[in-house]
Amino acid sequence: MTGIDLAYWLPVIFAALMVVAMFAYVVLDGYDLGVGILLELASDTPQKDQMIAAIGPFWDANETWLVLGVGLLLVAFPLAHGVILTALYLPVALMLLGLILRGVAFDFRVKAQAQHQPLWNRLFFVGSLLATVAQGVMLGRYLTGFAPGWAAWGFALLVGLSLIAAYALLGAGWLIMKSTGDLQQRAVRWAKASLGFAALAALLVSVATPAISPRVFELWFSLPNFFLLAPVPLVSIALFAVMAYSLPKLAQRQQQGNDNFCWLPFAATVGIVALCFFGLVFSIFPHLVIDQLTIWQAASSPEALLIMLFGAAIVLPTIVGYTIYSYRVFWGKARDLSYL
Amino acid sequence: MPPDASVLDPLLLARIQFGANITFHILFPTISIALGWVLLFFKLRFNATGEAKWLDAYAFWVKIFALTFALGVVSGITMSFQFGTNWPGYMQTVGNIAGPLLAYEVLTAFFLEATFLGIMLFGQQRVSNRMHTVATVLVAGGTTLSAFWILVLNSWMQTPAGFEMINGQAHVTSWLAVIFNPSMPYRLTHMLLASGLTVAFLLAGVSAYRWLAGQRTGGVHASLKTGVYLAALLIPLQIFVGDMHGLNTLKHQPAKLAAIEGVWHTERGAPLLLFALPNSETRSNDYAIGIPKLASLILTHDLNGEIKGLNEFVGEHPPVAKVFWSFRVMVGVGVLMLLTSWLAAWQLRRVGEPAPWLGRVLIGMTFSGWIATVAGWYVTEIGRQPWLVQGVLKTADAASNVAGGMILSTLIMYLALYVFLLASYISVVFYLARKAKA
């Protein structure tokens, strides 16, 4: 037709879209799951309300990116969707349990009878934590190619636990931007506390992937790739260093009522997540299940992908547009949530 | 079923699990689709008249909407995963059709409603009134568009069209034929009306509850009137559309229709059975009570019209009793809806308020729309068995190889969660009604 090999490029495009959706999900739902994890550390109920107010207008749309990411896997790579989700049956079920609990707790915690509200606050925390750990376990299982045995499961659990720190860091960064006063002060402390563990999370994933797959090892440690790729870990380390240096300064400035650069911790964390994503994609591409199934083996027929691409090309920019609009409407420090 | 089939039969468990999830899920979109438009109605009335009662009604019902929407979102996320975990064979066979339809649902509808929901709920102070109205329209439109895509896909599974099978995979020959497949217009209209009726009775029931509890305000009265009149208006429409939907099923899925009517053997002048215990052992009905020739008259517009019996579809027809009874539950609730809504509308016109006894009946029927809607879905979904996609893919061939024990344990977890959430939802709806400002 045009000389472009659709059967080659369409799966690549859809894999790229899927990565974008997953990245958007991890950053966006990452910060609101993180706020959920930090909820138990709030001083009192009004402070909890402030924390929820910082994420209230956004969380529905944030979770939609998960539906898009998994949806793209389902519709563009049905074979991989079956293999991956069947292998991840248990962590997926637990993640869904967590997401359901926290999603409904958002509303129940303010609307239920007064004596039940502490229960819903607790369920909001538990649900956020469960969903986070389950997502980390899913990532860990995925990275080992669903290997059996306690070592592989132990690794997955470790990734699950370290993802708590990563999301807490995103959540704390978000709160530093969106709050003032005592809550902001606490959020800076929470960010400092989760920084080290988040670094451990990044390290774990970075070391494990090449260790598991000789192909990935070759990819990163052969020349000249080794030098070309060196900026990825180095910039990540630099971003961690920037936060380690600037968070105490921010704490001091904040005491004097000046929170300039309050966006820095969140932005730096997003940068680190982006670099991790790049590393993962670089390692795994063109596979969907590491060293087992490629995107071309798993893809739907070109005609189905093409009709979806038309839709996505028109609609995705619109989605990005109105998402930006929504964030602009709620720009700046969060205010109390009120329906009127 | 082999004699040693145990409680751990993975196919049965996967079906129960998927059925439980989708039953739980559909409760909430059924409310949020129509409630979005009702909220828009309240808002437009307020914009036009400036009367405080419309704003009061909006302020109360938007809380219910937010709660309902959240439950719909989280249970919907579950669905997107269970397609893969429970029915991998589904996407592998018809993914070229189901994939784009689901993708269009997420892209055009899911994001739209979820994003503008934030502005609709919490943005009143931050955007102009006009923009807030636009956000409300986009949320209501998004929920409806979402329903459109899902019903297109479901209807295609019932009456597939516009495709050819190549190497065991469906390939599209005409997207227009896929989207406007033979049962889509009927099923979509039937479901949208079901949503309208569910919300109408929710409005009427909760408002009657508030009215009888002494909250005799303009906002409560406006909600009550909206609910009762909406119900009285929609129920005859629904009966009419339901009848057309039935005729459509007769044409395209005669086995389902034979199960609905409990017709085991092809007959002329078939009776309309009011009560019967379909017996799959003897392949006949026990204790049948019916009105002679009425089924033939309704379905063929001829007293002696022929209705194909289940004997023509041996091994390829659904379990009869479940379909037969689900249908009667749906129609029974529909008849109750007709009686109560017309009586209540008449009283509202004459006296301005419903009699206390009728108010209590309305309270009892608050969630009657759920019962009718779920029963209706059971008719159409169980009625499609043993097919997943009619004539193309059997349910058994789409199942995954996940172990029965794993499905059973997660099934128990989901069921416990759903019972807990459903109880919480209903109790919070009435709690909000009690504590609302009188």
Secondary structure elements and pairings:
The complex is a heterodimer of chains A (340) and B (438).
Chain A: H1 6-38, H2 45-53, H3 59-76, H4 78-87, H5 89-111, H6 117-143, H7 150-178, H8 181-212, H9 214-221, H10 225-229, H11 231-255, H12 264-284, E1 287-289, E2 293-294, H13 295-298, H14 302-329
Antiparallel strand pairs in A: 1-2
Helix pairs in contact in A: 1-3, 1-6, 1-7, 1-12, 1-14, 3-4, 5-6, 6-7, 7-8, 7-12, 8-9, 8-11, 8-12, 11-12
Chain B: H1 10-49, H2 52-86, H3 88-122, H4 129-158, E1 163-166, E2 169-172, H5 175-179, H6 184-212, H7 218-252, H8 254-261, E3 267-268, E4 272-279, E5 284-291, H9 294-300, E6 306-307, H10 320-350, H11 356-364, H12 368-382, E7 387-389, E8 393-394, H13 395-398, H14 404-435
Antiparallel strand pairs in B: 1-2, 3-6, 4-5, 7-8
Helix pairs in contact in B: 1-2, 1-4, 1-6, 1-14, 2-3, 2-7, 2-14, 3-4, 4-6, 6-7, 6-11, 6-12, 6-14, 7-8, 7-10, 8-10, 10-12
Task: Specify the structural class of chain B.
Answer: mainly alpha
Q: What's the overall geometry of chain B?
A: globular
Number of distinct beta strands of chain A? 2
- What shape does the CA trace of chain A take? globular
Proportion of beta-strand residues of chain B: 5-15%
The largest pleated sheet of chain B is described as:
2 strands, antiparallel
Our count of domains of chain A comes out at 1
| Average pLDDT reading of chain A | 84
Strand numbers in spatial order across the main sheet of chain A:
1-2
Describe the structure.
The complex is a heterodimer of chains A (340) and B (438). Chain A is an all-alpha fold. Chain A has one domain. Helices cover 80% and strands 1% of the residues of chain A. In chain A, helix 1 runs parallel beside helix 14 and helix 5 runs antiparallel to helix 6. Chain A is globular, with a radius of gyration of 21 Å. Chain B is mainly α and 438 residues long. Chain B has a domain of 168 residues. Chain B is globular, with a radius of gyration of 23 Å. A two-stranded antiparallel ribbon of chain B has the order 1-2. Chain B has a two-stranded antiparallel ribbon with strand order 3-6. Chain B starts with 9 loop residues before the first helix and ends with a helix. In chain B, helix 2 packs parallel to helix 7. Chain B contains 14 helices and eight strands. In chain B, a hairpin with a 2-residue loop joins strand 1 and strand 2. In chain B, 72% of the residues lie in helices and 8% in strands. At the A-B interface, helix 3, helix 4, helix 5 and helix 14 of A face helix 2, helix 3, strand 2 and helix 14 of B.
